[in-house]
């Protein structure tokens, strides 16, 4: 089983496909009490430079990241549970384009044209960008 570890700021091309499947990530943030908080999320990526997730303002992960932007996310290949990519970085949060982004991600995960819960949400959507400051990729041999 190959391994790749870097601080270079990029997810290796050999593992980017994991972020383009219907893979679920598990994001870990730090709460105000110092305890970790983990939750499953849909994932996307920014040309291998960052993992993107989408959430609502006021969710625990969003509140935690505003207080402490240090974050880790691990994404397992749904076709091979021994192949994964893990990214650590300091998250940035933005509302810009977040509604369009959740529609785009919902097309992949739900096979729908538009995210079906827009009308039920009172809070604005947020894009969380996790830059690939530290990357671990394991599984089939990497090519970089």
Automatic annotation (TrEMBL):
Protein origin, superkingdom: Archaea
GO CC annotation terms, alphabetical: cytosol
Keywords: Oxidoreductase
GO terms assigned for molecular function: coenzyme F420 binding; oxidoreductase activity, acting on the CH-CH group of donors
Pyridoxamine 5'-phosphate oxidase N-terminal domain span: 12-135
Pfam families: PNPOx_N
Name assigned to this protein: PPOX class probable F420-dependent enzyme
Species name: Natrinema salifodinae
């Amino acid at each position: 089983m190959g391994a790749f570890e870097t601080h270079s700021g990029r997810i290796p091309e050999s593992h980017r496909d994991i972020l383009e499947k219907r893979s679920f990530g598990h994001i870990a943030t730090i709460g105000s009490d110092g305890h970790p908080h983990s939750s499953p999320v849909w994932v996307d990526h920014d040309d291998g430079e960052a993992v993107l997730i989408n959430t609502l303002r006021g969710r625990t992960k969003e509140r935690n990241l505003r207080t402490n932007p240090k974050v880790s996310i691990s994404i397992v290949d749904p076709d091979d549970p021994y192949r994964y990519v893990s990214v650590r970085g300091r998250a940035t949060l933005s509302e810009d384009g977040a509604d369009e982004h959740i529609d785009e991600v919902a097309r992949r995960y739900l096979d729908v044209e538009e995210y079906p819960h827009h009308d039920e949400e009172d809070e604005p959507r947020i894009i969380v960008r996790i830059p690939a400051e530290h990357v671990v990729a394991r599984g089939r041999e990497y090519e970089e």
